[in-house]
Design brief:
With 227 residues, the chain is α+β, with helices and mostly antiparallel strands. The protein contains 9 helices and 4 strands. The protein has one domain: BirA Bifunctional Protein, domain 2 (2-Layer Sandwich), CATH 3.30.930.
Length: 227
């Protein structure tokens, strides 16, 4: 039977809703214990519960339940160059990264937790120019393999941003030209808050990740990271 610790509790969504209404340091400091008990610690338990399931999907990806520097993104926003000076994020993000962490060029799995919006993300979002070229070169060289990997039932590619014209150096008549225009290579699976708060959510999330494995394998090979 799955452990209750695999759920994202309803209290996590309540805290995020309250934080959105009171996004200031005075309120947050007064509710710091709520943040730890209702949001941070349950998400760290989810990461720990998901770790063995992730190892069966890909042993190279990392699920790190450390409170700092692990799979859980910081709640604090970087406002140095932002017009919006709100100090805290009103959504939580978890990233299961390849070797090298968040700076790795390889694909990873993501979990977004926000009131009304919960989803699994897989792939590479806005890669650096070198990685983007490597992925495009792999698609151009093996369009049939790319089509098979990226059109998997249950894990369709996101629409995403595209170039208006074919990227320089690629045949405009290439059968995968629309994908060569992509700036990101991702797939997502949406969940309800009720699904996220159910005891079997880690299993449900893992199943969504498994559906994305063909895409992940193609992208890992293109980026030159192990799978």
């Amino acid at each position: 039977m799955p452990s209750v610790d695999t759920a994202i509790p309803a209290s996590a969504f309540r805290f995020l809703r309250d934080l959105k209404r009171h996004n200031d340091r005075v309120w947050f400091n007064a509710n710091k214990e709520r943040y730890l008990a209702e949001l941070r610690d349950p998400l760290l338990r989810f990461i720990a519960a998901f770790a063995p399931k992730l190892a069966k999907i890909d042993r190279h990806l990392i699920a790190d339940p450390s409170p700092n520097g692990g799979s859980l993104f910081r709640i604090y926003r970087d406002t140095r160059f932002a017009r919006d000076k709100s100090p805290y994020k009103t959504a939580a993000g978890l990233y299961f990264a390849p070797p090298g962490g968040r700076e790795s060029p390889g694909p990873g799995f993501y979990l977004h937790v926000e009131p009304g919006t919960v989803f699994m993300g897989a792939g590479i979002w806005r890669p650096d120019p070198d990685t983007l070229k490597r992925v495009r070169d792999a698609i151009a060289a093996s369009p049939a393999s790319w089509k098979k990997a990226s059109r998997t039932k249950g894990a369709p590619l996101d629409d995403g941003d595209k170039l208006a014209r074919p990227p320089r150096g690629y045949d405009p008549a290439h059968p995968s030209i629309e994908d060569l225009k992509r700036k990101s290579f991702t797939t997502t699976r949406n969940f309800t808050e009720s699904q996220a708060s159910a005891p079997d959510f880690a299993d449900r999330y893992a199943a969504a990740c498994r559906d994305a494995v063909p895409l992940m394998k193609f992208l890992a090979a293109a980026a030159g990271v192990p799978w």
